[in-house]
């Protein structure tokens, strides 16, 4: 399962992973395909290292490569 970690200005580290990314098998592949929106976005779950609440984001399916750390932090901040 591929994940990304980013740290915000409050020194809170967020671990972000695409929903269904850690599952295996045909059913998991089907779930991942179904979770992609018509716009090509997927659900990404970001979990904080501290007391803050988990955040769910809708990001492009290639978010690991196309979304910068700054953009990711901005999305997290807007959805907290």
In short:
The chain has 80 residues and is α+β, with helices and mostly antiparallel strands.
How does the SSE layout of this entry go?
Layout: E1 3-7, E2 13-18, H1 25-35, E3 41-48, E4 55-60, H2 63-66, H3 69-79
Antiparallel strand pairs: 1-2, 2-3, 3-4
Low-confidence stretches: none
What is the oligomer described by this structure? Answer: single chain
What proportion of the residues form beta strands (DSSP E)?
A: 25-35%
Give me the secondary-structure category: alpha+beta
What global shape is seen? globular
Provide mean pLDDT, rounded: 83
**SSE pattern:** EEHEEHH
Number of strands: 4
Radius of gyration: 13 Å
**Helix share, percent:** 25-40%
Largest sheet: 4 strands, antiparallel
Spatial strand arrangement across the major sheet: 1-2-3-4
Terminal Cα span: 24 Å
Number of helices: 3
Total number of distinct structural domains: 1
């Amino acid at each position: 399962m591929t994940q990304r970690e980013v740290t915000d200005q409050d020194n809170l580290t967020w671990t972000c992973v695409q929903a269904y990314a850690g599952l295996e098998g045909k059913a998991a592949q089907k779930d991942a395909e179904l979770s992609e929106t018509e716009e090509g976005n997927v659900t990404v779950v970001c979990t904080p290292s501290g007391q803050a609440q988990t955040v769910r984001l809708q990001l492009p399916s290639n978010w690991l490569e196309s979304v910068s750390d700054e953009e990711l932090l901005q999305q997290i901040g807007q959805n907290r």
